[in-house]
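Q: Could you fold this chain for me?
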Amino acid sequence: MLYKAFSHSCQGASHIRSAIPIPCQDFSFADDKNEGFAFAIVSDGHGSEKHFRSSNGSEIACEVSKDIIKDFFTTLNDADPSNPEFAPNHDLLLRQLAANIIVKWQIAIDKHFKENVLTEEEEKIYNKYYGEQKGGIDFKIYGATFVLAAMSDQISFILQTGDSPCLVFDNEYNCRIPPQTINPNCVMGYTTSLSNSNALEEFRYYRPENGIKAIFVCSDGVTDSYSNEDFLKFGTVLLKEFEADYDNALNYVKEWLPKLSEKGSGDDMSIAGIYAIESEE
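A: Sure. Below is the predicted structure, expressed as structure tokens.
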């Protein structure tokens, strides 16, 4: 099976209108250039004053994850599924994948913090929320959500912390939001985060049992602009558009997301996805 992937993020309308323009807190990435698998990532920086470097946090989350995900699939492909002794434990591997992402994110954040000392204004904000800065770092200033979708011939899955919505499509184009990807604690503005001290325990994992056609992941700015029914319809239409003409569909996404932000939530917008295509002989 072959796979295609796409991603796009844009600055929210309310951030553009702000007296002091707010940079886009979202970051997304997708990769379909690998043999036998593809993946898509969305990371949404928290954006409030106390998370004043969350735009860096979301970008770093996507950047450090790329090689980790490729190593994950290398490990998976090296396992011999015909030998029970060496068959992969998918649940354990997914937990290890999440742990690796968190650790590599923290290392990269620490490096960024040391190379980019706090400005005078940032130091005031840091002291306001976290007390006087004494050489260490509170990762919450880089706080961001994280959602990864991946598809391969062996396994498809979603790995997630935060409130980013996920769409899963079966081979008949039926679209759903798996309840396993919804954290009931992410309400009233609260979300789990890469920056939390118990981040690993807050990660959720979803592996579809049956064959699937596609997985789309978004930041909450997209879903907050739709009713639940319209969001599902949007996903289905978008998948069919990508199958019909990838370049036109991607251009549509780039044109539509800023308009959706203006009409809807006003928030930053991200969407990324992967879908299976017939093997090319």
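A (continued): The CA atoms of residues 114 and 135 lie 9 Å apart.
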